[in-house]
Amino acid sequence: MRKHSSGSSEDDDVSLVEPPTDASLRLHAEEPRLSAKPATKLDRRRSLDRRPSFSVSRRSSSANWRSPESRNGQGEKLPAAGRTAPSSPLGLILAPTGELQPKGTKKAPETRLAGRRPQWRSPWAVGVLGLLTSIVGLGFLLTVLHSSVTRQLDPKGCRMSYMRPSYAKLNEFDTEHTRLASKYSLYLYREQGVDHDTKVRGVPVLFIPGNAGSYKQVRPIAAEAANYFHDVLQHDEAALKAGARALDFFTVDFNEDITAFHGQTLLDQAEYLNEAIRYILSLYLDPRVSDRDPDLPDPTSVIVLGHSMGGIVARTMLTMPNYQANSINTIVTMSAPHARPPVSFDRQIVKTYDDINGYWRQAYSQQWANDNPLWHVTLVSIAGGGLDTVVPSDYASVESLVPDTHGFTVFTSTIPAVWTSMDHQAILWCDQFRKVIAHAIYEVVDVHRATQTKPRAERMRVFKKWFLTGMEAVAEKTAPRSDPTTLLTVADNADSIIAEGERLVLRSLGSAGAVRAHLLPIPPSGSPDGKRFTFLTDAKLDKPGENGKLEVLFCSVIPSQPSQSWAGFSSQIDLSRGATGTTRLACRSAGPDVVSLPASTRSTRYPFFTDREREITPFSYLEYGVDDIAEHQFVAIVEKATSPTPGFVIAEFSDHSRSHWTENIDLRRLLTSGLKLRLPAERPMVSKIKVPSLQSSLLAYNLRISQQGCDGQEELFAPLARQYLAEPYESKYFVNAREVAVSLHGVAPYVPPPLARKLEDDGLGFQFWTDPTCNSNIQVELTVDVLGSLGKLYMRYRTVFAAFPLFVVALVLRKQFQLYDATGLFIPFSESLEMSLRRSIPLMLASLTLLTFSTAGSSTAGNARLWRWRDDASSIIDFRKNDLLIGTQEPMFLFLIPLIGIICVGVCTAVHYMALILTHLLSALASLLTFRPGWIRNEDRRKLAPVFWCPSPRRRMLTTAVLLLLVSTVVPYQFAYLVACLVQLMTTVRAQRIASDLRSAANSNFYNYAHSILILMLWILPINLPTFVVWVHNLAVHWLTPFTSHHNVLSVMPFVVLVETLTTGKMIPRVASRLKHVTSLLLFCTAVYAAVYGVSYAYTLHYLANLLAFWLAILHSSSDSWSLAGLSHLYAGDADGRKRGKEP
């Protein structure tokens, strides 16, 4: 191999690999001898290791080492003295130092002495600052993960469900109806033992499975619906008259398609389902398959149930061109991420979400119903809560999409008789939940209408009755305004009237041995204290027509009139017992407004009961404002039990001022000192505390309630606590409450703001039911659970690790290129990270924190969509204000920016060392497979030195062209990117072998460069893998139709060209001109974008990295001279060269 002088113009042909040469041996022979003793093999090896490397420091860093003879056997032609170095496409020339400079630039000064060997830098070395920062970051990460699985966990309370499923495939729904029939299938569910044929005769319901879901997931709800109608409804004349009929459940087999990662798959499913609905409705017109009552109207719409991404597909259907108008008017979704996509790795799914949500918001922003295509549609989103670790339940919110007149969000822990959180799959099979779903659907059904459902307002009323607690502000009280059903007759001189202001307390029922009534006078409305009526019992309250143990009535005195008929009352209760003076009361039953509360005793632990526990009868609770019952004179509590029966009753009128407290405490004060409150001994049965500042989902709290003393008297019930949010509707109950873990789904990162402005006093509320007969104070203390709050960061910020680490990697690469262009040394990744931690990373994190603080509360109108809600100038909403950085503008959470940065530094360090371990293991494996005798002479070491096998340029061009052709036609570009990552891994392994066997600055430079490019590509890989998985899944189900997206060759060609260039071992040349700032600027912009927009638009990070690869490929090509003759030489093969074979 020819040794060039420091001023040679052929530095671009110098090898990265430097095997010992005869010239170098002669050079060492001329050095002053340290001893007259003949050199041994060990001495010769040491002398080689001490050889001067001034020739390396002057060279460009081409890694394509060749022997003195070229491939065609000709010797290399030396340049004539004074010959100009070849120019590049950028108008640059290669300087003697290996730098790219513009033509005419003077020789750059040397940065170090020619005879000085550069210090070997180990890629394993790490500085003190980098080590400490990484340990702290990984420590924080482990703390977050540990907290997420050990603290602030909701208890699991689902009971198992059982069914006898069968599925009838509708084969006639084939490719004549839709092009997607060869990929998807439609089924009709039938419950064995209940449904005896496959004819449709009821109300059509379509179930849509979610991401990678199965069509068989319909069976729990469908089985409950079939059994409920078979056992109950078909024998209920009133229900049949109201329009109840059996439900025909249809379900779709999507072959477990992955819709969460691929927008086109989501659109394909929506297109297929619209055609499926058209076909389903046609079945009811076909007498061969329909057994429907001919007197009923033909169905024109279908009720839709969607799980997970199936709920998004349901909403997408209404925006598709093939949607049949008014064919969907009721949508119930379970654990569906409505607010934003679960991940933003695919450009099309982000755009699809924007289009869908924009369509729904635009529709409901219309002032007139005729202009709203969704006016008849109701949307109910049910979230699983804290146990759902697949999709953050914050994303299930629809408050930013539909007004409260058309939909709402509710959590399963809120639903009466459910009272438990659920994981992503349990929400489908949970027994107590599926019963509520089936019963609610039956109540909105009306087969006497062509739509098969009741009007929108009535549907919303039904859903609120079944899914909400009944204590919300929107809950309707129907009992006071219903028709009188009971005639109550009492004696005038009876002692059953409770004095005004007194509390009714019954420790048992039926102690009088006869039916008796307790009358509480209703105070006049408009009192300044705002009185309200509350009632609590552990017995079941009767509804109109029932004859149980207890009933509550709202009664008005009937003026006495001669010959008046009482036949209009369905029930009459005469308690006069033959008294001469009587009073007749027309009463309305409060039964329809009863609120179920979980029973709270000293023996209960959870608000629910599991499969192995006995059923617990819930408490019955009533609450009315005086204005709601002002048209009545008495509240009558009627004891129907005639023998002593266990049970208690507490009823009272209380002042609002004595039972409601609003604590205006800010979060900083709550963090430092907590909130302490004393409930006085003379307190009402129910107390409410509102803390408006508690709205964030990122904080968790601990609530402590002191034990009440009853002075030796047995307490009627243990303290019962409820935490609640007004929007979305989330309530959690805590029975036998003493120490309570409080977490909520309120204002969450990256979730758009609601359509309706929140009230100033909106926030977390607490409601306490305590035994008022225990004359003792109760201390309530609320503190922030710091460790528990860290666990809440996992679900809200786990997608950060797809974007924010690229912020660190880009800054590290930027420092590497800056030092390389300045000194000629490409330092290791860990050393560059150490330098970046001393300046660039802290400065960037501080700048991002200040940027967030300065923009908090201000509208980003330049880059957001502003909506004018129903032409109200004061209701302009920016739905994208939470898309940036950490997804919240709350100043208190600004510490999350440096915290996430530190964690990502630790994660990047971990990935760096894992990549080092992987490359070293592969290198060691390659060494084992390569035979190398241990007795070989040192002079012959160069013959077995690992070198880069360089394929011919023609082969490289053909390989690249074939790969790009496949991308443009068959495979997505994500496949080519995965191939590029594997090739880059092999290149890094070969570079590591060379750098470890022959230590030199050039070898170290190329290995560090290849390793850093590999780290960059590894962090981009998770963005591309989901689409690749979708493509592989389509191949597995024999769906060979290419994607309509992801075939842009420009999206991956720079990566392919760069990786192919690196396989030759060519080091990127140094740039001494102003063009070196282009590399720095590209990496800086990538870092900023990854931090600011990376979470919401992660797919763009691939494009930014692709742009960087394009620039690096240009720099590589700038070290070569291009000509038409050179291109033609690629295809003018040489026979002698082919016969000789390949040489290094």
TrEMBL record:
Involved in inositol deacylation of GPI-anchored proteins which plays important roles in the quality control and ER-associated degradation of GPI-anchored proteins. Residues 1-116 are annotated as: Disordered. This is GPI inositol-deacylase. Residues 200-443 form the GPI inositol-deacylase PGAP1-like alpha/beta domain. The chain crosses the membrane at residues 124-145, 795-813, 892-911, 956-985, 1006-1029, 1081-1102. Keywords: Endoplasmic reticulum, Hydrolase, Membrane, Protein transport, Transmembrane, Transmembrane helix, Transport. Residues 53-67 have a biased composition (Low complexity). Residues 25-52 have a biased composition (Basic and acidic residues). Coiled coil: none annotated. It is a multi-pass membrane protein. It comes from Thermothielavioides terrestris (strain ATCC 38088 / NRRL 8126) (Thielavia terrestris). The keyword Disulfide bond does not apply. It holds the Pfam family PGAP1_2nd. GO terms for biological process: endoplasmic reticulum to Golgi vesicle-mediated transport; GPI anchor metabolic process; protein transport. One of its GO terms (molecular function) is phosphatidylinositol deacylase activity. Belongs to the GPI inositol-deacylase family.
